[in-house]
Amino acid sequence: MNANKTGLSAGRPSQRSGNDKSRLLASLQDTAPTEDLVRVNFSLPESKHTKLKVHVARSEHKSIRSFLTAYIDSLPDE
User: Which of 9, 67, 26, 32 is nearest to 1 (CA)?
Assistant: First the structure.
């Protein structure tokens, strides 16, 4: 197959132009808010952790983190 027809080309990724690299880096940037992040860490009994994992798996959330973040967002502001 001709490389021009498939859009593929041989070569080292490190030899790509700076423009390609900047576009790739821009697409990979995290869109998280600029607010400082704080880690929350606590222990749960295994049975409660399993219950939480099952609930999250059955919900529209992709992770426990996204579930807990959405829950916290739903709390009223005081």
Answer: 9
Q: What residue type is 39 in one-letter code?
A: R
Which residue's structure tokens are 């059955």? Answer: 58
- The alpha helices in the chain, defined as continuous H runs, are 3-6, 18-28, 46-58, 64-74
The tens digit of pLDDT for each residue in 24-77 reads 777 777 766 678 889 999 999 999 999 999 999 999 888 999 999 999 999 999
How far apart CA 5 and CA 68 sit, in angstroms, is 47
Q: Are 53 and 64 in contact (CB under 8 A)?
A: yes
pTM: 0.53
CA atoms within 13 A on the CB side of 31: 2
